[in-house]
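Per reviewer request, we include the raw input and output of the structure prediction for the construct analysed in the revised manuscript.
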Amino acid sequence: MRLLISEPALALASPLPAGVTPVVFRVGETPGPFDIAFVSRDLNMGGARDTPAPGFAGFVAALAAEPGLQWLHVNSAGVDRPQYKALMARGVRVTTSAGANALGVAQSAVGCVMMLSRGFLGWMDAQSKREWRPVTMPFPPDLQGQTATVVGLGPVGNEVGRLLAAIGLKVHGLSRNARDVPPPGFLSAGRYADLAALLPGTDWLCLCCPISDITRNLASAEAIAALPKGAHIINVARGGVMDEAAALAALHSGHLRGAYVDVFELEPLPPQSPWWDAPNTLVSPHAAGPAAGNLARAADYFRRNLDRYLAGETLINQV
């Protein structure tokens, strides 16, 4: 069995099981035939979803051209790229590393909740202008006791909810299916369809879900309007889950007090995008998740799945 893999990923995944021969991918070269493949994060360093790096572009082109490909493991949690969908339509099994970057994404999301709650953006603006701005009344509302609705109960959403509960928020969760026993820190775990009932009491709407037919535009203009005045949105999900125009309008009108947005419908975000100037808003370049340990964690998911694949067992995170 031949495995298409990058050199950095091979170093992390070695030693390979007996009978698995690596085909090391190099940009500009056409790899020989292979049966399985691992798309690692190093291939897309410096790239973005809509402008992929040469390594990623070349790798997925090789995947599309290989008729014998049977199984693909990807470093990310999401497989909404059209290249992956085309492979699945061909019958290629696809698995993900969902969970590998959960700690980083959750820490970014909750860190921004705290920054927005405590007024960090105002302090940073004052510092950049060398201005001493004493705090005036009214003081920021207590974060403790506020309510967060976490949309998506995968590894990221579960960790976001656990951390928010640890700092005193009341947390409700939503996913495709309701759960009798909510994850740690959550008061409830309902279905996406329950969102409308929760919105009027939600101070922090935290989007942590994958993009799908169910979640596309879930944070619609109507949903944003149903939030109480002064609510916040945290979006570490995918571009397309939130109505960006409606969110921008709500930020400018003051209906939303602030936002943290890591993902956009168009990436990279163009210089002329109105998001750069959105009031009381933190923008990051789809960078909530990267952490030094992610590469090894993703390789570990692949390595465990490789053993399962060879043994004919159920694969972890199969799409």
